[in-house]
Each structure stands twice: as C-alpha cells, then as structure tokens.
Amino acid sequence: MQQWEYMWIYVIKEKRKQVYIANGKRLEAQSYPEALNLVGKEGWELVAIIPPTAILPSPTHEFPTFCLKRPILEAQDS
Question: What is the domain partition of the chain in residue ranges?
C-alpha cells in the first residue's frame, strides 16, 4: 500500500517581505509559484490550499497555507 509524506508551506512577514517556510525551513523563493515549483522538482504535489481565515498550523493568518504530499519510496531489495 502506498504511503505518503506531507509538507506544509506557509508565509511569514520579515522586514516587510514575505518569507516562504516549508516544514519549518526557509525556501529560497520570492512568490507562491516559485515556492511550489521549487518543491515540485523534489516530487511534492499540491493537495490543498487552506484559506487564511481557517484554523491552520501557520504562525500567521494573513496568507493561505499549502499542503503538499509525495510518495514514500520503499527501499528495494537487491
């Protein structure tokens, strides 16, 4: 059965700039499309966008939070 791992991307404001955070780590991105393309290259797929008015795991409620997933690859026996 396929297993998944999940990632949350949210935004914080720092010195009047938006900083994109993925699972607690800062992304080198200047926009949502850039952040999503960056993690998409690592196999992450967007599965949900949570509006800023919902209860979220984000430290800020000004911006939407993105939920992504990717398959956990099982080690193959050689």
Answer: 4-71
Residues in the chain: 78
- pLDDT of 62 over the 60 cut: yes
pTM for this prediction: 0.78
Say how far apart CA 76 and CA 65 lie, in whole Å.
34
CA distance linking residue 27 with residue 30, whole number of Å: 9
Q: Please report which helix (H) or strand (E) contains residue 47, including its range.
A: strand 45-50
Burial class of residue 69, CB neighbours in 10 A (0-12, 13-18, 19+): middle
CB 70 within 8 A of CB 3: no
Q: Please give the pLDDT value at position 12.
A: 87
Distances (CA, A) of 10 to 2, 59, 75: 26, 8, 31
- Distance between CA 75 and CA 67 in Å, rounded? 25
